[in-house]
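M13 family metallopeptidase, Christensenella massiliensis. Tokens?
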Amino acid sequence: MGPPSFSLSDADEYKSITDVGQRKKDAEEVMFKKLLARAGYSEEEAAGLWEAFFALETEIAQASIGNAEGASADIRDKAYNPKSAAELAELSPDFPLMEILKPYTDGGVDRFILTEPEWLAKMNELYTEENVEGFKAWLIYQTLTGTAGMLDQECLDIMTEYSGAAVGNAQMELPTEQLAYEMCSALFDMAIGKLYVESYVTEETKRDVTELVNDAVAVYRQRLEENEWLGDETKERALEKLDTLKVRVAYPDDWSLYDYSDYALPEDGGIIDDILAVREKAQSKKVDRAKAEIDKDLWMTAPQTVNAFYQPTDNSINIPAGILGGDFYDPNGTVEQQMGSLGIIIGHEITHGFDSNMGSLYDKDGNLSNWWTEEDRAAFKERTDKVGAYYAGIEVLPGKYVNGEYTIGETVADLGGMSCMLELAKGIDGFDYQTFFESWAKVWKLQESEETAEYMLQIDTHAPGYLRANVNVQQFQEFYDAFGVEEGDGMYLAPEERLSVW
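Tokens:
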């Protein structure tokens, strides 16, 4: 349990608003008022509702963790606060938290994780008669923004126009078929995933990518065994963690775990009725899952998702089918193309298993447990601080720099991923390094407005795409040899200044 999402995305914006935050606030206000007009409210009523909503949201945000603290190394410990139902009832005497949790407690669940105790204390402080209008306004905002895209074309257009206005994006009108797909994919994720896999992914691709993951794991095993700055105790735990890494590639082996056959839609309902029925059923399944033993074979993301990630709570690397296409992966591509795109991403995700913000705080079974010695953590920090400082010196827009500390987990993982694949390349005769590096660059090609770039600098834990391409290759001699880069060239970085962690 923790705070809801905020209209300005980041709780810190309510404490000291930035230019990006102000643009987003202005856009949200116009959008909300237009939706209220469509719902039959007068201009005066709409203005009052916005003011009440934003005032309450500001109060809640004051006691909530923002993006900066949320990316800190110690956030995992801060956010792990197991509580029984009785303890939560004592902590929340006024705000009706136990009513919200009643389906779980009725089912016998008696262990909950409270991520932000200060937020819950604040909710109890705010849950008074004098704030009733604020809570009403908050509920109206959630209801309208959550359903407007399904009501009619005019409401959808309002949502589309203002969702991108804050960051300078010109939103395209999506075809109805795509909107329908996205809705179905969100509500019936694994059912749509099975259809996607049957149409676009072969067993051969799953097998080939799994083999690439295993090759990357073998490189890491060798590097950990030969590592000179980790102590024996930490190194042993790291190897245990690597040996128990769960690998999920493309799609589940057992589809029977994802059954929608007992879902039923109202006979005469519209789209809102259908969605409410599906969500109610999905919620009951969440309760059932909370009551049952943890199934570590269960996929936490749908196969059609275009992403890859490391999951620390079950020590797994996840490569869904959705990323196995386009510039990320060509099943008919050369080994250099595959290693330079998906291969580096795989190495990146494995690296997260040993980083400061995630992997080093969870053991081989996915339990929150600091398995590093203080000496090894200090040695690791010395290396990663150099990476953060280098990125922090890069000016993306006039006066706007990369937040080196905020992005450090991802920048170190990028370096680890490329280093891993280049180590693998050493064993391949005639390896084409130019193709390898070009494949990496294609992954990060991007067009965006300056407003979007500024917005992403504030909220994204990754460095901008062009830096992920250029800064990483600068650190490896193979890049200099492949393209004849010499001292004095724009991409040249002196050997003593190059970054290396793993």
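Residues 153 and 159 are 10 Å apart (CA to CA).
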